[in-house]
Amino acid sequence: xxxxxxxxxxxxxxxxxxxxxxxxxxxxxxxxxxxxxxxxxxxxxxxxxxxxxxxxxxxxxxxxxxxxxxxxxxxxxxxxxxxxxxxxxxxxxxxxxxxxxxxxxxxxxxxxxxxxxxxxxxxxxxxxxxxxxxxxxxxxxxxxxxxxxxxxxxxxxxxxxxxxxxxxxxxxxxxxxxxxxxxxxxxxxxxxxxxxxxxxxxxxxxxxxxxxxxxxxxxxxxxxxxxxxxxxxxxxxxxxxxxxxxxxxxxxxxxxxxxxxxxxxxxxxxxxxxxxxxxxxxxxxxxxxxxxxxxxxxxxxxxxxxxxxxxxxxxxxxxxxxxxxxxxxxxxxxxxxxxxxxxxxxxxxxxxxxxxxxxxxxxxxxxxxxxxxxxxxxxxxxxxxxxxxxxxxxxxxxxxxxxxxxxxxxxxxxxxxxxxxxxxxxxxxxxxxxxxxxxxxxxxxxxxxxxxxxxxxxxxxx
Length: 462
Known about the structure:
Radius of gyration: 23 Å
Low-confidence stretches: 1-17
CATH architecture of the largest domain: 3-Layer(aba) Sandwich
Largest sheet: 7 strands, mixed
Strand content: 15-25%
Structural class: alpha/beta
Number of domains: 4
Mean pLDDT: 90
């Protein structure tokens, strides 16, 4: 089903007719949120450049501005409307500028975006990226347009892509999610789980190699359940381990990463595929969210603390040198001091290399947002959050210090933005290493680790 506003003419692909291209026009894209949004922005940029447009880093000089929105936390909404307020002033000075708002916030709050920012020309969602050119073509004729498709018609991976790094690429293998985590809005804005055929994924990776890509990151909301909707060989079962082996065996691919798995669905066959496939990196993002069984149950996470730690231990035992990151939510409704202490115990025991830590943000439309009688005071939450951050920063620093004196293969991402004489590189485990000297993006070399900070390493060519 498609919900639309102010669309007086037919909009199907068969009836849509492209108008002349915008050769030489400038576009600007601002992206909020996750890697999925970043990849969607690459596709939008690919469509714009296919239409003859040129990227600009200054939105005030752009002919088309695309804002790719996120709605996972409240501050993302606040940043969106703050940016739209700034763009109104620019648009007042340049009425011909076209302003497009897409992504998750537009998918979820289409009417609110239109109400709060009536100067936006096009509001579109997450499922109709391929329609962006057609929609902006018709703004002058139709006026402000809202087109949000509620169900994914097809995986959009055939769209052109403009990547910032030519050696590294996102590859979408799955969209949507079938889980019911009470704090998460993703199923509402991305829909139910839909997997790409494995052959399509492999062919895309082969095309990327032909373009010079040596590193791919496989994207999905819950990659561990990839393929169970496809009924491969008549069986509805996850086949992510098989996909890792097939992608990792593509000639020319040196590194394969993926995000995000779910601890409840992580199985030994995936860990074994990671260990046995040379190209698959020793890196695992393993979201914990809370160390309290009571809170995990209220979150609908599907696992308890012991199960989480058992699967983390299995992964570390099977994959030597594994680096693990996680997600932690502080202040979930009803979280007690005891619940938080249990989380801190897991932090100390698990010794994550990195953690993405968040204060609970109630999202309208989620079950947790209705638990208003159990909200924790802001003062208590802030104290817990600060303690968590300090503890994890200490552990991250200690984990990084363990690498000092060792040698690691790194892949250059090009000169550092702050210090051009230093190259920004990453290890197979995803750790950031600043290395002196000029090392073009896409270059592999060994680096001797000389020092460590909380969130980065320092090194020199070995």
